[in-house]
Automatic annotation (TrEMBL):
GO cellular component terms given for this protein: plasma membrane
Alphabetized GO MF terms: ABC-type amino acid transporter activity; ATP binding; ATP hydrolysis activity
Coiled coil: none
Subcellular location, record wording: Cell membrane
Domain ABC transporter: 8-242
SMART domains referenced in this protein's UniProt entry, alphabetically: AAA
Name of this chain's protein: Amino acid ABC transporter ATP-binding protein, PAAT family (TC 3.A.1.3.-)
Lipoprotein keyword on record: no
Listed PROSITE patterns: ABC_TRANSPORTER_1, ABC_TRANSPORTER_2
Pfam families hit by this protein: ABC_tran
Length: 248
């Protein structure tokens, strides 16, 4: 991880759904190459925060900057900024009528106008990277949950993002399939990808995160190194939350 200026800078971000305030003034910086893991109970606003960073939800107030550029629909570079942020969801969201390879190359061809032969070459390399080259012609219905999620990661990487967001990427998987997805994520982190990961996998957070953020009720209550958060949390809410989780 290098210590250059923030890759992502979030200032006083607020988001309402109706009268329900989901994000209550979030302030957060993520450096280039940093792995940030967000933990906290369900309903604390973690997924909504990721969706705001990706541009899938519009904040009601506050700002998000990506490499110093404001993420705003009025910014002429808005679509370019969005494309620089890859996102992997809990439930894969693969196209069921496309093979693994077709899922991976669809974005580069349709959005980035990449020549098909180049997209296929890149797609095959990415499937190899996630350990699924032998599944390139399989449809999602023939893949396990872990394999689908690894295809989803390859699909996000095919857009050549500078930032990867992971929204509880293993929570829908059978326990024995979780590690194969986490291993791909660890490899990405080792290569220096800037990552924000919402997860309940505390072992992954302890091993891979540069910084851990604890969210509850739409607020960041505590942030620090994994060592500090897991060994000596300051906020009573963090202590209570971690006390209910078996740290592996």
């Amino acid at each position: 991880m290098n210590n250059s200026a923030a890759m992502i800078s979030i200032n006083n971000l607020r988001k309402f759904f109706g009268t329900n305030e989901i994000l209550k003034g979030i302030n957060l910086d993520v450096k280039n190459g940093e792995v940030l893991v967000i933990i906290g109970p369900s309903g604390s606003g973690k997924s909504t925060l990721l969706r705001c960073i990706k541009g899938l939800e519009r904040p009601d107030s506050g700002t998000i900057y990506i490499e110093g550029q404001k993420l705003d629909e009025r910014n002429k570079n808005y679509r370019v900024l969005q494309q620089e942020i890859g996102m992997v969801f809990q439930h894969f969201n693969l196209f069921p009528h496309m093979t693994a390879l077709q899922n991976v190359i669809e974005g580069p061809i349709t959005v980035k106008k990449m020549p098909r032969d180049k997209a296929i070459e890149k797609g095959l390399n990415l499937l190899k990277k996630v350990g699924l080259l032998d599944k390139k012609d399989e449809y999602p219905s023939r893949l396990s949950g872990g394999q689908k999620q690894r295809v989803a990661i390859a699909r996000a990487l095919a857009m050549q993002p500078k930032i990867m967001l992971f929204d509880e990427p293993t929570s829908a998987l059978d326990p024995e399939l979780v590690q194969e997805v986490l291993n791909v994520m660890k490899e990405l982190a080792g290569e220096g990808m800037t990552m924000i990961v919402v997860t309940h996998e505390m072992g992954f957070a302890k091993e891979v995160a540069d910084k851990v953020v604890f969210m509850d009720d739409g607020m960041i209550l505590e942030e620090g190194s994994p060592n500090v958060i897991f060994s000596d949390p300051k906020h009573i809410r963090t202590r209570n939350f971690l006390g209910k989780i078996i740290l592996t």
